[in-house]
Amino acid sequence: SWGYLIGDSGNGHLNDKVSFDDYVRPFPNGRDSFFVMNAASQFPRATQLNRLGIIVQGFPDEGPEMCPKLGAEGWTNWWFLPDHPHLQRGDMLDFYDKYVAASHRLAERKPLILAFAQGGRFAVSRARIHARPKAYYARMLVVLSKEVNPQEGFWMEAVWWDVFHPEALQSKTPLCEYPVLGEHVTRGPYADTGILNAIRAQLRGGRW
């Protein structure tokens, strides 16, 4: 089902104008994977933003594209929650370098924006999975199996694209266009009533 609004148990993480059928259609537009990025996080700050199509319905330019057609305007403002799961413990960039980028990691560590599909909803072909050797997955499985609810499990939601696309790591090339991230960000959650009402008002007024 559509949406991801805090406090609504009926949300199913689908973006507006995207259906489950889109995920089971073989090789959509000739591609061997299907991702609809509806969130992004910046590390190490763990600030986040969300695609407007996952929190409000009715955008004329929304659809099953990987990134918003509106570019930077297709996202909420950057927001921050001090108790966000991405921040509980550990060093996400260290995990990314060692286990996700692995042999493709950059020599110099720098802040990283990762676009991802909220809820880990995506589809990949067998060839995509085989883009990494079996040993790569085995090494990662050891880390993810060390306890019942490892911190790394929360980070995995944000890195699935990079796991299956070693030739297109987000640490090297951004996937989408994002709003500028300044020093000051909105205190989350993104689903604040004022934010949603402002977006709906802009829709009614023909802003999009």
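[next item in queue]
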Amino acid sequence: MKARPSLRHRWSATGQFLHWSCAALILLMVGLGLAMVEWVEDQGQRFDLYQLHKSLGALVFLLMALRAAWRLLARAPVLPESMPRHERVLSKAVHVALYGLIFAMVVTGYVMISASPLPLPIQLPGGGHVPNLVAPDFELSEQMKALHHRFAFVLIGLVLLHVAAAFKHWLWDRDGVLQSMLPGRR
């Protein structure tokens, strides 16, 4: 059994909140996306799921923008010295890919809705809505839809890789990396 070195720092409560709230919303969004595209046949229910998915997408964008800004200002915890260089590089690459892909999902979803010939804007809490970015264009909407769906499956793969790495650090390496993102003792 390996020794259990600890990190010198943990993610702040703000970092943990932004991480876990984004993670929960993204998992919910993937579930809603699969339900509305693959499983729900009732058109009324499907419509409601689409509206919820779009509204939550706007919230994901806001939280991810806050998270990206916060991440530029906040220092990450020090990684264990025992972590090999290739794992550090891979970790950074996966995090950058996750951020980029989440923003790409939001943009393709937004352009898909904006370009749709069916004018159903993204509803915001309180009754407002997000204005359409482009004029109706069926072909553009379909292209964005195809990208949005493809990106969803890439995102699922990256999330699974991220979770697998977290479990590796927890169960195999026992180096405190996962614990640095978990709420609890400081």
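[queue empty]
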